[in-house]
Every structure is written in C-alpha cells, then in structure tokens.
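Model it.
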Amino acid sequence: MINSLIFSTVRGIGSFLTSETSNLPSIEASEVDKRVLSVAWNQDWSGFIVGTILGFNVYSSEPIKESISRDEHNTGFKIAEMLFLSNLFALVGNGYNCSEYPPNKVFIWDDHRNCCVREITLKSEVIAVKLRREYIVVVLKRSIYVYSFKDLKVHALIDTVMNPKGLCCVSQAEAKAVLACPGLHQGQVQVHDLRRNTIKCIKAHDSDIACMTLTLDGSLLATCSTKGTLVRIFNAHDGTLLQEFRRGMERVEIYSIAISSNLKWVAVSSEKGTLHVFHLRPDILSSPKTIAQVSSFSYIRGYLPKYSYDNERSFAQFSLPVSTKSIVGFGPENTVVLVGIDGRFDIGQGGKMVELEHKRFLSLPQTEDTMVVT
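Modeled.
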C-alpha cells in the first residue's frame, strides 16, 4: 500500500464526488523514497512547503506544481516554513544524528544564494517557527521568542503554558502586527500587538487549546479546544466572543483551522476524516452583538443542554481519508484547499462538496509515521 503527499481542491458544496483515484485527473507521482516530516502552508495559501528526510520541497498552489526541490542535504527538516512565495525559508533539523542542522537552531535559507544567511540558537528544542516580513517567531515548549528579521534582536519574549504542539499564529497585514498564542492558564489565549506592546488575554475554552488561527489582518481569532466540539470566533482586539460553531458532539482532535481572507468562511479539518466549513456572519466585525447578547435567555444557560443554544452547524462538509492528517487553507473563488488528503472544495449551496482537482506529489512507503503535519 502507498501513502502519498497529496494536494487537492474541491468545489461545489452541493453535490458529492467520492475521492477515488479512478475519478480524478491525471496523477503525477515521484518514485523517490522521501519520508515527509512536516507540511506547512505559506501565509496566504499560495504555496506550501514540505520538509523531508532529504531536504525540503516547495509547491505553488495556483497552478499546482513543484517550484523548488532541495534534496542535497544530508539530513531532514522537521520544521520548514516559507515567507509567502519569496526566496526565504525557515528550517529546523529533525534531530536524528544531525550536527549540521540540530533541533535547537533555526536556519533562514536564502534560495537565491543557495545557503543559510541567518542562524538562531536556542537553549532547548524548537517546536515551531512562524514568519512575518519583519519578524521571526520561534516557539519553544513554554515560551516564544520574537526576533527582528533585520538584525535578529529579540523584540519580545512571551511565556506560555506547556505548548507541545507549538501553537502560535501571526497576522500578515502591514498595518498591524498581531500574534496569538496560548496564555498562562488552561484554555486561555493571549493576543499581542507587537508594535504597541499591548496584550489581551481571552478565556477561550475550559479545556486546553488545541488549535487556533488569526485572519491575515489580525482582526479575528478562531480557536478550538482539545474536546474538538466547538469552534469559537473572537474579536482579536477586545476579546469579544462573536460567533460559535458546533463541529460535533464527540471528542475529536482538530488538525487545522483557517479563516478565508474575505471573512466569509471558517474551515476545520479533524481526525474524524471530515472537513467542516462554517459561514461567518456578514456583519461579524461591525455588529456590537456578542454570543451572550444574541440569546435573550442566556441567564438560564446553566439549566439548558449545552448544545441547545447559539451553536451553528457547518454549512458544508467533505469526507476525507481518516488515516491521513491534513492542513486546510483557502483558494480563489470560494474554494477550500488541503494538503495531505484528497479534496478541494467550492462553497456554494451548502451540503456535500465536490472534488475539483487532485495532485499526488510524493509516493511514500507505508509506515506508521509516514506523514507528520505541523
């Protein structure tokens, strides 16, 4: 059996098409044995980067094709991040017999020069890296360092609860630099304005935070807890709870959350093998109403079943292979794009979604740890 790194696009939330390879466009598969260590979208979903045991590969999503392949390294990268579609990448070694790229260092790779031009050394293992044009954000298990891209000076040091997943997200708009990460208490998210040096703490959930994301302009924050049943949308500036979606009733691990750049949709992928797409209110940023204000009976919430109020169900869904982790993003014309599964989706009339395009980039041997998505 073969496991694959797959990029897919699905359109049509109106009818359903099974994701069998016989129904898909031609599949391009490499026969090279490359075990995938990490997969990450860039900041606007125009491309994604894959860390392998041999190096890293970069793909554009419009059109879907491989643009860069760097397999000449003697070691792999457990973390690989790209800065939009530029020539700059952040790399962290996988830590196995690796002296050149150890797991406690972040290397900034300039592909024009074909070498590392920056290097950041930490005292402990790097869990995640996020990039913004003026900042390099390095996530450790209990802290986050924000470095200036220009001179690598520490701009901010943020303490967090234990953060084994390296949860952190950074806005990308020029007007405001917003960073969101776990707070100092269970279920808490702290939102930092990196230019004004202000902090807003939000009690997002009762359980630990499992996944979070910001809009590109940093105006909205989406979160989900380790229960995986509710997705909550907050005003990132003042912490107001604006909308709440119910993904399901059973506990589930959420793999990724994305908010579309047009502020219309929220997409969630999980271990259940289902992609859920939710509809954001058109007035979500202009309306003063909060979740508590919407329900005129909020004062008796303690006497009502938890699922009986203010939980909006998904607008559209798509069934995915349960065995493969996937990270979700948004493409043009109301499409949802995913890496790691079979599916790309259009957001039209609601219901089941139809697959538009499917590409298999890497042919991989079947193992228990064939794909690790961060």
